[in-house]
Each structure stands twice: as structure tokens, then as C-alpha cells.
From TrEMBL, chain B:
Species, as recorded: Virgibacillus alimentarius
InterPro entries named in the record: ET-Flavoprotein_bsu_CS, ETF_a/b_N, ETF_b, ETF_beta_N, Rossmann-like_a/b/a_fold
Record has Transport as a keyword: yes
Family note: Belongs to the ETF beta-subunit/FixA family.
Cofactor: AMP
Descriptive protein name: Electron transfer flavoprotein subunit beta
SMART domains: ETF (SM00893)
Residue ranges constituting the Electron transfer flavoprotein alpha/beta-subunit N-terminal domain according to the UniProt record: 21-211
């Protein structure tokens, strides 16, 4: 066993850490307060090759691995949950399905601009009546000649307002048992009949764009179908497996940032003539926060390592997402507690960590869904 | 153009300095490229992009120093040289470093050598100028602008906040000051390419040097941390009384009046 990062992984982490501290961190409070998607930051990240870390050079990517990508998400998440979420979603959900299941032509045409950071991608799965129950998708894609005609509504879709391409899941027919066949189809956002609204008032990750998509008689070529026309559902389940690693990594970032802030404050703040960090009640909190952040990081990196080594990683990805996101919520909550009244104030940023972390136990599969995934892997 | 950068690794500025047995503990410390040397790397890359040629980054250190060299390669330098002295030298000073570099540059064609103004650890700022003297080439320290045209270099030199304009000729050694440029982040493609770039490993034997040739000229007598800052004093009461107390404290306690 070897826990050392490779030279490339270490350099990637250090570079993203420097970039996050210099460029993103000073704006994190405003990004949250103004709920404004920092598109300029994404352009800079694109120039540094960050939008294409896990994709090969032939499609405009950087030829990195999942571990490097997870380290990058953690570093961004440490300073800004909004930027971290949009970053993770752009790569894991917006671009990865095309890389994993797309045809050569689809990769050249749609993946390359995403990997180069010239455009953002977005993945439309959730619907008003199909959240955890993705099988309950109502959006339909009917074949008419050489085209799909898509009708339906998607909600809570990350990055959609700024995306050039959407990957939309839709019912394309019924199988022999009469069950819906759900497929994934590429829909450029400038296609006629696509309406994207971003009117949500969110609790956290406020600077990450979240939108609803309305599809009215949207026509795209049949060739925009991604992968196997029968196995669309299975495909995006495996997309979600990969996405879970990145949400785990983002959670580690918030969990670590919560610890860092709480520890620094506890050492500085004096009550009863002594620093808070000298009180055992506070020490125990800090010890738990540090331990759980590190354990979260371990499982995230293990899941990433399994994926990089082409081993099965579904269960570990669910562990990583579940444990790390719940750790992020706990650590952010404890960080506020350690800060006392100051922690409740925006200026001290730890209250933002909690609002941002709450999304991570909901998005890309709730904690409850993760437990179902794990239980199924156990053979239940 | 043959461009060389002298690079040193230093403690990460976030690191806490711990002294144990009169030595600075560096076992678990994170190291970075000396921030002033980052300006040198950036400038070297820019000059190469403008005039052509090759950038070689040179460091003296131990086997872990390859990390900082790889980062410089990821930023865009072409080649790196690590002169590993860990097994051969107990300790060294600016004389040691200068002697080793002098031997290294002995039979190399050099147009431009860039170094940091100072290293943030020992902050002597001596290696650059002393090396230039040994090599018999021109040098300018603390530069904030460099324009090269043929063999002529036009330089802005920072002199305590003012600017001195200097014209000189290549071959040339300069040391880089804050304000010269904004060092780039190594891009992901740069990081991926860094592994494939050549890195040469040398020891002092390879430079025909013996330990005695580079023996330090200075002796470190003691290493200690600065005295801890005491909490400030806040004066209270009527302004007039406060002023009186302040004057008395400055006279009697601080003894500055």
C-alpha cells in the first residue's frame, strides 16, 4: 500500500490551492451574498486546464486522473462551496457522460469545448416529480423521422443557465415488460423550445447556478442520443457513481475548512483568561472534526483510486459521499458552535459552510439513497 | 538565448519555525519555491518566449529538491539541474553555494542568469552578485523591469522605492524583485508535461569539487527565535492624564525619550 500522492497529483493540488486562495477565496463572501455565478473564475480555471482534468488530451482534456480531480475539488471547496459545486457538476455530470458513453463524433463536437473550459455542460435528470425516484421521469422524447421531439420539465439543474449543452434524460419508449426506457440525449441550449429559468432562492451554494428547464417540442437529431438506446438508465447511474466521489471531495473541503477556522479561532479567542483551545469541551470537538475530516478524505481518495484502477467503486463512492457530506454538516455546525455568537454572523463565514454543506447531504443522491445503494451492495 | 535560473527551496510561508537542539526542524515542513525565485522563473520564461532559446533551472539541495524543480518545469522551464549535496556536505554558506555554481557554470555558454533578490529563509542576497563576480559577468540586483535587445539590456532597478534606469550588456546576471512580473500558475497541461522534461542530477564530484573546496567561510554560532511579542498597553482615563502617562512610560520604561 502507498498513500503518497504522485508528483502530478501533488503539483495539481498545490496549484489549485494557490489559485483558490489567491483568486476565489477573496470573493467567496460576495459570491454567496450576491448569489452570482462567477463565470469569470470558470474561464480562468479553463485556461489552467482545470475543466478537463480527468479527460484525455485528444478531447481537449489534461490527461489527469480521478485522484487529481478529487484533490482539485477539495481545494476549491475549501474556499467556496458554490464554485466547488458548479465545478464538480460541470465535470462529473455535464461532461463525463459524453466521455464515458458518447460516440467519437459526439466527443469531438461536445466534449472538447467542455474539457477545454470554453463552455459549460449541465446534466438534467431531476424533475418536479422525479427526484430520488429517477425512474419516475416524465419527460418524453418521441422519434419523428430523424429527430427526437422532447417535451417535459426539469428542476434544480446545476449550471444550466450558463451551459452550452444539456444532457437530458427522457423516456424514449417501453421495454418488453412494459417498463419505461429512459435515455440520455444531448440538447444544445440554443435549440428552439428550450427555456431556462434561474429563479430559485437557495439556502446555500448560492453562487452556483441552479435552474429549471422547460422543454417544449424541442427537436434534436437522433444522433444526439448518448450511448445504448436501451441502457440509458444504467448509464446515468454510473455517471452518478463518479459524481459521488466529487461531492465527497467537495464535502471534505468544507469539513476541513470548518476545522481550520474553528481551530484558529479556538487558539486565539480567550474566555475565563484562557484560550478556548485549552478547554477539554472544545478540544474534543476539534479532535472529532479533525479525525472525521481525515477519514472522509481517505475514503474519497480510495474511491477515486479504485476508479482510476478500473475496479468497482460504487459502494466506496456511496460511502465517500455519505460519510464526507454528513461530516461536512457536523463540522460546519461544530465550527459555528465553537465560534459562539460570532459564528452566527456572516462575516465569520462558518455559517456559510453549514448552509453550503446542507446541499451535499441532498444533491446527487440524498443520504438516504446512499444508504440504499450501500445496502444493495451488501446483498439486501 | 541560454537562460539560467538559480532556484532555492524555502519553508512554506505558512510554516511555523520550530528549533530543536539549536537546529531548525524541517522533517515535516512543506517547502515551496523561494517566492523571489518564482519571479526569476517567470521572467526567464517570458524572455525565452520573446527571444527564443532555452530556460534551465538550477538548484543546490537534496533529493527532495526535485519537487520545486518539477514545479518550475510545469510553469514552462525547459530543463532542470539538481546538484545534490546531501551526502557530501555537512553544512554550507553563501561561499559554498557560489563555489558550486561557479564550477557548474565553468564551461557553459550563458547569456542570462536570473536569481531571486533574496531567499526568504536566510535573506542574504549574496549568491547572485558573488557568482557574477566569479564568472566575470555584469550584474544588477533587485530589478523590476528587463528589456533585452540584441546584446543590450535595459533595466529598471528598485532602489528603496525609487527607480534607477540602467543599460548594460549580456552576458548578465540579475536578481529579481517583487513587481517584476506576476508568476503564473503551472497549468494542468504544464504539470503533465513536466515529467517528460529532462532533469539532470549532479553531485559535487561531477563538478570536480572536493568538500574542502567549498568549505563554508562562516560559522553559525546560535539559532534562536525572536523574543515573543508582549501584549500592548491600553491607557485609560482623561486624555491629558493619558498623554502624561505615555510620556512618562516612553521616558522611564521604554527609554526612547
Amino acid at each position: 500500500m502507498n498513500f503518497e500522492l504522485t508528483e502530478e497529483q501533488r503539483m495539481t493540488r498545490n496549484m489549485v490551492r494557490d489559485f483558490a486562495n489567491d483568486v476565489i477565496k477573496p470573493r467567496a463572501i460576495d459570491i454567496d451574498r450576491e448569489a452570482k455565478f462567477p463565470i469569470d473564475i470558470f474561464k480562468e480555471m479553463g485556461k489552467l486546464g482545470l475543466m478537463g482534468i480527468p479527460f484525455p488530451e485528444e478531447y481537449g482534456g489534461s490527461g489527469g486522473d480521478t485522484i487529481s480531480y478529487a484533490l482539485a475539488v477539495e481545494e476549491i471547496g475549501k474556499v467556496c462551496g458554490s464554485t466547488g459545486l458548479s465545478y464538480a457538476a460541470a465535470i462529473s455530470l455535464g461532461a463525463t457522460p459524453i466521455y464515458l458513453f458518447g460516440t467519437e463524433e459526439q466527443k469531438q463536437k461536445y466534449l472538447t469545448p467542455l474539457a477545454k473550459g470554453e463552455a459549460l455542460g449541465s446534466f438534467g435528470l431531476t424533475e418536479p416529480n422525479a427526484g430520488s425516484d429517477a425512474g419516475g421521469t416524465k419527460t418524453t422524447a418521441m422519434i419523428d423521422g430523424d429527430e427526437f421531439v422532447i417535451n417535459g420539465e426539469k428542476c434544480f439543474i446545476t449550471n444550466a443557465s450558463f451551459a452550452k449543452t444539456l444532457i437530458i434524460t427522457a423516456v424514449t419508449g417501453k421495454d418488453e415488460q412494459g417498463k419505461n426506457i429512459i435515455s440520455a440525449i444531448i440538447v444544445p441550449t440554443d435549440t428552439k423550445g428550450v427555456t431556462i429559468n434561474s429563479n430559485y432562492e437557495k439556502m446555500g451554494v448560492r453562487g452556483s447556478d441552479t435552474a429549471e428547464i422547460i422543454l417544449e417540442n424541442v427537436r434534436v437529431p437522433k444522433s444526439n442520443l448518448i450511448g445504448d438506446p436501451q441502457k440509458g438508465f444504467k448509464q446515468f447511474l454510473s455517471t452518478l457513481d463518479g459524481g459521488r466521489i466529487s461531492i465527497g471531495a467537495l464535502s471534505v473541503g468544507i469539513a476541513q475548512a470548518s476545522l481550520n477556522r474553528a481551530l484558529a479561532y479556538a487558539k486565539e479567542r480567550k474566555q475565563f483568561g484562557k484560550p478556548l483551545s485549552s478547554f477539554q469541551a472544545i478540544q474534543f470537538k476539534l479532535a472529532n472534526m479533525a479525525m472525521e475530516a481525515e477519514l472522509s478524505r481517505n475514503i474519497v481518495l480510495k474511491a477515486a483510486w479504485l476508479k482510476d484502477n478500473h475496479k468497482s467503486f460504487s459502494k466506496e463512492a456511496a460511502y465517500a459521499k455519505l460519510f464526507a457530506s454528513e461530516t461536512a454538516v457536523r463540522n460546519a455546525d461544530q465550527a459555528i458552535q465553537i465560534h459562539g455568537g460570532y459564528g452566527y454572523m456572516r462575516e465569520y463565514e462558518v455559517e456559510r459552510f453549514l448552509r453550503d454543506a446542507k446541499l451535499l447531504v441532498i444533491g446527487e443522491g440524498t443520504s438516504e439513497i446512499q444508504r440504499i445503494v450501500i445496502a444493495r451492495q451488501l446483498g439486501c | 538565448m541560454n537562460i539560467y535560473v538559480l532556484l532555492k527551496k524555502t519553508f512554506d510561508t505558512e510554516e511555523k519555525i520550530i528549533i530543536n537542539d539549536g537546529q531548525i526542524e524541517d522533517d515535516s515542513a512543506e517547502f515551496i519555491i523561494n517566492p523571489y525565485d518564482e519571479y526569476a522563473v517567470e521572467e526567464a520564461i517570458n524572455q525565452r518566449d520573446e527571444h527564443g532559446g532555452e530556460v534551465t533551472v538550477v538548484t543546490i539541495g537534496d533529493e527532495d529538491s526535485d519537487k520545486q524543480l518539477r514545479t518550475a518545469l510545469a510553469m514552462g522551464a525547459d530543463k532542470a539541474v539538481l546538484i545534490d549535496t546531501e551526502d557530501d556536505l555537512e553544512d554550507g554558506d553563501q561561499y559554498t553555494t557560489t563555489k558550486i555554481l561557479e564550477a557548474f557554470f565553468q564551461d557553459r555558454e550563458v547569456d542570462l542568469i536570473l536569481a531571486g533578490n533574496v531567499a526568504i529563509d536566510e535573506a542574504s542576497g549574496q549568491v547572485g552578485p558573488r557568482l557574477a563576480e566569479c564568472l566575470g559577468i555584469n550584474y544588477v540586483t533587485t530589478i523590476t523591469d528587463l528589456k533585452i535587445d540584441g546584446d543590450t539590456a535595459n533595466i529598471d532597478k528598485d532602489v528603496e522605492g525609487d527607480v534607477e534606469k540602467i543599460e548594460t550588456s549580456l552576458p548578465l546576471l540579475v536578481t529579481c524583485q517583487q513587481g517584476l512580473n506576476e508568476p503564473r500558475y503551472p497549468s494542468l497541461p504544464g504539470i503533465m508535461k513536466a515529467k517528460k522534461k529532462p532533469m539532470e542530477d549532479l553531485e559535487i564530484d561531477d563538478l570536480d569539487l572536493e568538500e574542502e573546496d567549498v568549505e563554508p567561510k562562516t560559522k553559525t554560532v546560535e539559532i534562536f527565535l525572536p523574543a515573543e511579542k508582549e501584549a500592548g498597553k491600553i491607557l485609560e482615563g482623561e486624555v491629558e492624564d493619558q498623554v502624561k502617562e505615555l510620556v512618562s512610560l516612553l521616558k522611564n520604561e521604554a527609554k526612547v525619550l
